[in-house]
Structures are given as C-alpha cells and as structure tokens.
Amino acid sequence: MGYQSTMQERVEAVRLALAVDVCSLYLALPETGELELLASSGLDPEAMGARMTFSQGLTGKVARTGQPVVARQVADHPDYHHVANSGEERFKSYLGIPLRNDDQLIGVLVIQTVIAKSFFHNDIRELHRAGRDVREALLARQGIAGITG
C-alpha cells in the first residue's frame, strides 16, 4: 500500500469515527511557510496538492498560532480563505487542530460539516484522539515514528 492511499484511509477513518462530512490533512512545509493538502475525505479530489501560506485561512491560522481553530459559520469568519477546486463552499462548520512532533508543526488536521455545528472542547479532544494514527503516519514518513509529542 502506498503512502498516499495510507493517508487517505487514515483521514477517511477519522471522518467516519467523528461522523463529519470532511476530514482533511494539510502537510506543514515550514521551510516555505506553506501547507499542502495531502489527503482528504470529502473535498473534491482536484484540490489535492493545493497550497496555502500560514497567513491564509483558518487552516493557516491553526499553523500560525499552534492552537485549535473553530468556526460555526466558516464563510463569516474573518480568516476564511477559499481553496480553489475543493468544493468546500458547501461546508458550514470547521474545526482544525495542529499536529506536532514536540514543538515542531508537522501538519493540520481539519474536520468540516455541511450543517452548522458548534464544536466544543470535547470535540477538540475527540479529534486529537481520532487523529493519532494520522499523526503517526506523518511521523513515519519523516522517519521519526514512535516519538510522542
């Protein structure tokens, strides 16, 4: 099984476990200050490989601040940034969390819903828990599997 299909399976598992419409993984590229859409269950496949800077959008805000970002009505959020060809305009709510290895950002994991939903601290914990396999796969890709953070 290839790396890309492994990552697709992992984000699909998170999407199903949390009963949301989208789960996406953005790979952090700190040397360029960018995020790359690496895998998604729910966004249009044409969006794969799309990049944004750490200064763009809610996902960029997660990368910039190292903190979870929540939006009940994503399009109304001042940091909203549309990802071309993603089909994301139909999704209302957003929760993104940083994935780290110690203090180093390695990615951002995002879930979205079609129906407006308020995400709470419990949802953030659940996303961290469900996203462990995604994080471990990213660490394995970077040759640092098994390191906790």
| Counted beta strands | 6
* Structure classification: alpha+beta
Euclidean distance between termini CA atoms: 27 Å
Radius of gyration: 14 Å
Share of residues in helices: 25-40%
The neighbouring-strand order within the major sheet is 3-2-1-6-5-4
Largest sheet: 6 strands, antiparallel
**Low-confidence spans: pLDDT under 50, at least 5 residues?**
145-149
Count of helical regions:
4
User: Quick one: overall form?
Assistant: globular
- Strand percent estimate: 25-35%
Strand and helix order: HEEEHEEEHH
Could you write a compact summary of the structure shown?
This protein is α+β, with helices and mostly antiparallel strands and 149 residues long.
Q: What brief labels describe this structure?
A:
globular; single chain; 149 residues; disordered C terminus
What do these coordinates show?
The protein is 30% helix and 28% strand. It is built from 4 helices and 6 strands, in the order H-E-E-E-H-E-E-E-H-H. The longest helix is centred in the first third of the chain and has 16 residues, at 3-18.
Topology:
Elements: H1 3-18, E1 22-29, E2 34-41, E3 51-53, H2 57-65, E4 69-71, E5 93-101, E6 104-113, H3 121-130, H4 132-141
Antiparallel strand pairs: 1-2, 1-6, 2-3, 4-5, 5-6
Helix pairs in contact: 1-4
